């Protein structure tokens, strides 16, 4: 079961007991949001870091694919873990730390919209800083297929690797509640810290991303909690946030790279950093591959194929309509930052 769908059980815990005072339920919700904030900030920084580290000239595979793989490995370990939760007699699906790690960290560490953007960039041959072109436009179809196949296959393999690893090396961690409380306090402190760090000019794309990432994480959490139960064979919540994040990412790429008669749409590096922060922090966090892969694994065929194909096809079509139409009519250029 995915971290986002597990939040349904959490809602039941917080609302079904009529004797629970409103103040207690409110406190628990704030605590959960603070935990999600902490892991959302850690997740977006990890994704940006590993993407930058693995993006270099002549790399075989690089960029967000490494973040998607790593997040799926961790997600596989978490959904397969049992000893700690059995030792403490806990239902892990309603534990704040578990939700923070799955929905907060793994969901943020991976990015569905970035995968769709990479597929379109390869299709249209518009990679930033590239001076080479395909022999003909037909090679773009092969490149798009290679992105989709490699991302999905490697992410699914990562999920199985994590599950197999924890089956052999599962362990007991008795200090779950202590760590949970420390992280809840750290979430608020971390958010305040990144707001203050906006003053550092060389790191603004990172700090902007860290500021908006928790908001996107909360949105994904509540949208999934609201919509996923409506269709058991089609996780509408995850589908909605993945498609919406892709649409917003396409628009932001038009703003960042779009040409005009007077040059580019953006005129300052600060504005470029802000747009990049929204791309990485909001769109990257709002969409998720780790939960998407878990849902593909959980659904039975042919429902999983229908869900997977619909998610990829609809998102890619929106990317083509928005970013592609601008590229083929006005043109794109390399960003300022």
UniProtKB/TrEMBL annotation:
Pfam families listed in its UniProt record: CRCB (PF02537)
Membrane topology of the entry: Multi-pass membrane protein
Catalytic activity annotation: fluoride(in) = fluoride(out)
InterPro entries reported for this sequence: FluC (IPR003691)
UniProt GO molecular function: fluoride transmembrane transporter activity
Parts of the chain that traverse the membrane: 26-46, 58-79, 99-121, 141-162, 182-199, 206-223, 235-255, 307-326
One Gene Ontology cellular component annotation held by this UniProt entry: plasma membrane
Sorted UniProt keywords: Cell membrane, Membrane, Transmembrane, Transmembrane helix
UniProt subcellular location: Cell membrane
Superkingdom, natural source: Eukaryota
Family to which this protein belongs: Belongs to the fluoride channel Fluc/FEX (TC 1.A.43) family.
Protein function: Fluoride channel required for the rapid expulsion of cytoplasmic fluoride.
Protein name: Uncharacterized protein
Source organism of the structure: Wickerhamomyces mucosus
